[in-house]
Specification:
Blueprint: H1 3-28, H2 34-56, H3 61-99, H4 108-126, H5 136-170, E1 180-184, E2 188-189, E3 192-193, H6 195-210, E4 216-220, H7 231-241, E5 249-252, H8 258-267, E6 276-281, H9 285-294, E7 299-304, H10 311-325, H11 327-352
Parallel strand pairs: 1-4, 1-6, 4-5, 6-7
Antiparallel strand pairs: 2-3
Helix pairs in contact: 1-2, 2-3, 2-5, 3-4, 5-11
């Protein structure tokens, strides 16, 4: 077998392995951001390898079709998808600020929309001249532009993977009858549950009824500084008013965040490995699922409906939370990208352009 054929065979095999890893990960668990990355890379490498193998034998149709699909999708995303995304973020951001409280968290969609609106112009302003200059100013500008571009692409890629993994996870169904349903708290108003928290509780109660009332519901939420009583107590009262058997509802009242919701609720289980369903808002499902995996819980997360205008800001906030949960990895990745940009500038730019005048 000729050397090019060996390389193509390796590329095809690698694509098949990555695609298989993505499919297995999706079927077995789904609580991994890497799953859609494996699926996308595997499908891409497999299509590339097969297309090139056919092209080597004189048949260009598979490669041409794959190229048209990829290039067409990219062009459609740039020409149509990007402007529509900016408009949607601006509109939903303005709507959530008009209908909900004016906070930084609720303003994230609007901030992201404005940022994406001016991103191409900003990167253009940082771009070096068409003729690379090997003097200090030219090299610094080249390194800054390359670093900024790679950082933007990095966060765009991670956000796309996070969004894809979230959507794939929402298609999963509860496979094992749960012994416990954990409902995550979301703040009180005047000591009573908010509409958002009520939706979570309704979702948890629906899961309990789906399994004929056998799972115990843990209403998990501590007491904030501006709350007259713990969220867990208010949540328990709401569930009982909605018809839940008081004997099947337990209040967890110490937690202050999602991780503590899960940790303290798990401590109430007779068996930490018991199958659990976590009920939360739709935008919060995947991050809650990631945390259950980190904590080693045998859990499946389900979501309650969320108003469309609230969803973009909430998803961006959840993505920021995932980045914070993996801050060391993120900082290391960004440092590597910046170092690569500097190294590329020091090695390549002097060979591309004239030296200092």
């Amino acid at each position: 077998m000729a050397a090019p054929s060996v390389v193509l065979a390796v590329v095809t095999a690698l694509g098949a392995v990555l695609l298989a890893a993505g499919v297995v990960g999706l079927i077995r668990d789904g609580r991994r951001i890497a799953t859609p990355v494996y699926l996308t890379m595997g499908l891409g490498l497999l299509a590339l390898g097969v297309g090139l193998l056919f092209a080597e034998r004189g048949n260009l149709v598979p490669l041409t079709v794959a190229s048209v699909i990829v290039i067409g999708t990219l062009l459609l995303g740039i020409v149509v998808g990007y402007p529509l995304l900016v408009l949607f973020l601006l509109y939903s951001g303005a709507t959530v600020l008009r209908r909900e409280s004016r906070s930084l968290g609720n303003a994230l969609a609007l901030i992201a929309g404005v940022g994406l609106l001016f991103l191409p112009t900003t990167l253009g302003m940082l771009a070096p001249s068409d003729t690379p200059r090997a003097d200090a100013v030219g090299m610094v500008r080249y390194a800054v532009h390359m670093s900024a571009t790679l950082v933007v692409l990095y966060f765009g890629f991670i956000f796309a993977a996070f969004t894809a993994a979230s959507l794939l996870y929402r298609w999963r169904r509860i496979r094992k009858p749960p012994e416990v349903v954990i409902v995550l708290g979301a703040g009180l108003i005047d000591g009573d549950v908010t509409p958002l928290l009520a939706a979570r509780l309704d979702r948890g109660l629906a899961v309990q009824r789906q399994f004929h009332g056998t799972p115990v519901i843990i209403a998990s939420g501590g007491q904030g500084p501006d709350e007259p009583r713990p969220e867990g107590e208010a949540m328990r009262d709401y569930l009982i008013r909605q018809g839940a058997d008081p004997a099947t509802v337990v209040a967890e009242t110490r937690s202050r965040n999602t991780e503590e919701n899960l940790r303290f609720s798990r401590a109430l289980l007779d068996d930490p490995s018991s199958p659990v369903v976590v009920a939360t808002s739709s935008y919060h499902v995947f991050r809650a699922a990631l945390l259950t995996r980190t904590l080693g819980m045998n859990a499946h997360a389900v979501g309650a409906p969320t108003a469309w205008y609230y969803y973009p800001s909430a998803v961006i906030r959840e993505f920021a939370g995932v980045i914070r949960d993996r801050l060391r990895f993120t900082v290391l990745s960004l440092a590597v990208l910046v170092l690569l940009s500097v190294a590329f500038t020091l090695v390549v730019v002097p060979a591309m352009g004239p030296g200092p005048a």
